[in-house]
Amino acid sequence: MNALTRRGFLLSAAAGSAAAALYARPGFAAEWPERPVTIVVPFPPGGSNDVIARLFAQVFSEKFGKSFVVENRPGANGNIGANAVARAAPDGHTLLLSGNGQNAMNHGLFAKMPYDSRTDFTHIGQMGAISNALLVSPGFPAQTFKAYLDLAKSKPEAVACASPGNGSSPHMAMAMLQHAVGMKLLHIPYRGASPAITDALGGQVPSIMINVDIPLPHVRAGKLNVLAVTSPERNPLYPDAPTVAESGFPGFSATGWMGLSGPAGLPADIVTRLNRAINDTLDDPKIKERYAAGGYVRVGGSPEQYARFISSEIDKWTKVAKDTGASIE
Questions:
Q1: Which element (helix H / strand E) includes 228?
Q2: Are 121 and 98 in contact (CB under 8 A)?
Q3: DSSP-assigned beta bridge partners for residue 161
Q4: Chain-centre distance of CA 222, in angstroms?
Q5: Is the Cβ–Cβ distance between 74 and 53 less than 8 Å?
Q6: Of 135, 131, 155, 156, which is closest to residue 145 (Cα–Cα)?
Q7: How many angstroms separate the CA atoms of 254 and 270, rounded?
Q8: DSSP code of 103?
Q9: In contact, 304 and 268? CB cutoff 8 Å
């Protein structure tokens, strides 16, 4: 081998070694996704988490050229599905539709958690937020928010109110509301949004607290009436419905939120690509229309912002659970 050939060989070998070292370096994924990516939704189909997960799964499948598949794995208010992701290999092929229940509220509702949302996940980005709404059937005797509160205060536990389940965002919004008002509702927890709304429509339960997107067609059909929303501002889906905050409880805010997370140690380049995809998707005019139609608020931001937000939500809802006595166990 002459000097020139040998020099070229050595340069090629060095380049190859450098590339191998680059791909082997922690936090760098050579080829991703290599196979279909699973987004675990730790709740039954039909709820707001499921809606957002399926929307982004469709967009990501087109963007990344590999299938993104939603897998519903409910149980323990989201703990079962979330824990499965926390224990999964950090290769970017198993992700979590993270949210206020499984990644914040549960830390105050369960005496012992199978994971720590601050340390056992790589938080990628927030996809959105959604308010809760308090609704009643048209035949219910209280058809304004004030009348509802007055009735509930005058008859403790006589007014039944449904929610999608213990520890859900609507349940905790209800707990906050009872604590703020000084009333006691008869909470009827369901296993998901679909059965809760079905019983509310059928008259089995006279009132319901639920994410604003779920009852929209039934409100438009005159089958349910919205008394109030729990977000700081009025929701455009129900512009005539007051907020709890403006109805005599300043600062009241109890909204649901959702984002994307993976196991701790997720490679940095995968996090960057997914975070960019989240923000690009949220800026898409068609997605903006979908969000507006469903009453969702676009959020976005960096992975660091999402991680800080989750940490603050853990503190907030742990205090709410302590103050209200709310518990799942």
A1: strand 225-229
A2: yes
A3: 187, 207
A4: 28
A5: no
A6: 135
A7: 32
A8: I
A9: no
Angle, helices 48-64 vs 285-294, to 10°: value is: 170
Gap between the Cα atoms of 3 and 303, Å rounded: 50
pTM of the model: 0.83
Per residue in 99-131, pLDDT (tens digit) is 999 999 999 999 999 999 999 999 999 999 999
| pLDDT tens-digit series, residues 22-33 | 334 444 455 899
Distance CA 40, CA 54 (A): 10
In tens, the pLDDT along 213-263 reads 999 999 999 999 999 999 999 999 999 999 999 999 999 999 999 999 999
Query: What angle is formed at CA 238 by the lines to CA 212 and CA 318, rounded to 5 degrees?
Result: 40
3-class DSSP string for 261-326: EEECCCCHHHHHHHHHHHHHHHHCHHHHHHHHHHCEEECCCCHHHHHHHHHHHHHHHHHHHHHHCC
Q: What are the residues facing 97 on neighbouring strands?
A: 260
All residues at 6 or more sequence positions from 11 whose CB lies less than 8 Å from its CB, including other chains: none
Tens-place pLDDT, residues 164-183 = 888 889 999 999 999 999 99
Q: Give residue 325's region: left, alpha or beta (phi > 0; psi -120 to 50).
A: left
